[in-house]
Amino acid sequence: MKFSKLISKTSKTVPSDETAINAQLLIKAGYIHKEMAGVYAYLPLGLIVLEHIKQIVREEMNKVGGQELLMSTLQPKDIWLKTDRWDDKKVDNWFKTKLVNGTELGVGLTHEEPIVDALGDFIKSYKDLPVIVYQIQNKFRNELRAKSGLLRGREFLMKDMYSFASNQQEHQEIYNLILKGYYAVYERLGLGDNTYRTYADGGIFTDRFSDEFQTVSEIGEDVIYLDKVKKIAINQEIFKKENLQKLGLNSADLVKVKAVEVGNTFHLESKYTDALDVYYTNKDGQRQSIIMGCYGIGISRLLGVIAEHFSDEKGLNWPVEIAPYKVYLTFIKEEPKLVKIADKLYQDLTLLGIAVIYDDRNVRPADKFADADLLGIPFRVVVNDQTIKDQLYEFKLRSSPHLKYLSQTELIKMIQ
Ligand code: ATP
Ligand code: MG
Q: pTM here?
């Protein structure tokens, strides 16, 4: 990509109503556009990062046996009546709409009901189980407060996964496997060191705890108590003596910290399957309840968390695996010799499959470097007089102040 062709421009200012650092950074760097409170558009740079996050999640969910599908956003009311979740008094953040003829519809805020209803057409016998399905889709929620940028959107991107098992043991095995998949996701996203499995309230229809994945951060809306040695936490909401005992946690070992919920996993027992009349028959031909689990990951929330977590006073600083481009390449001044070398290197790197943003603008080096830092591109390569003299390229990591001079071979090796 040539910098001059980017539709977004970097800017020093942000909308005056934008108070969240994550959104401020992403707006300044031209990754997102604010539509209104809690609603953001992803510009090309932001979309690439979002796709990288999605891809990591997708790969790990496939590894644990998930099959991807895509449900609709418009949802029929009747299935929600069956589970008693239609009424605004029961679920207070629904967006609802109507057909011309007056028929009420829900605008998807979650998908337990439609997933169970759809899979009910296919799950009939024990031979059809277990099943794990997931989707990555925009969710719509009329959140009361949407002041945290991408952390709390009214329209936001979520990965939601649902498992269907023929008995508790099978369910628990799937659940444990998915927990492992979650650890792998946060590890690959660069959040492994500060993201903790956190015990939380399981809801009214199970006596088990649910699990949240909480990234420790000052910007978090949640409060958790963390055991740093065991690498486990407990949500403040269920922090009491009997729960600590059940979980083998000792209050003296726990520190209270703020955190962002970046994912969660729930035991749903057979609440939704029973309510929607979806059962299976076992080997003896008897009708049995299906045990369900559901598993969320906040994809767009993660974009905000990662943006803010890996930032500094100069701007964004993406982990290599999710950066929109790995290399920022430019020439120090617009002289034909330098431009020619830079053009050639741009071609060479691109042919090797390395994602490069090539700053082909004729602007002051200081402005170029400020933009490279703001955009958070991991590797910076500059073609300057030394390149002409010694065929060496100036190389710098976004996260380090040190310059290195590398031959093209060394450079490619370093980047790869
Ligand atoms: P929260 O307590 O933060 O409102 P939730 O319990 O409503 O989250 P779920 O409905 O289970 O969360 O959603 C799964 C995941 O989606 C959450 O773990 C979170 O990472 C993300 N998420 C939930 N609500 C939002 C939102 N309004 N904006 C962005 N991400 C969200
Ligand atoms: Mg919520």
A: 0.97
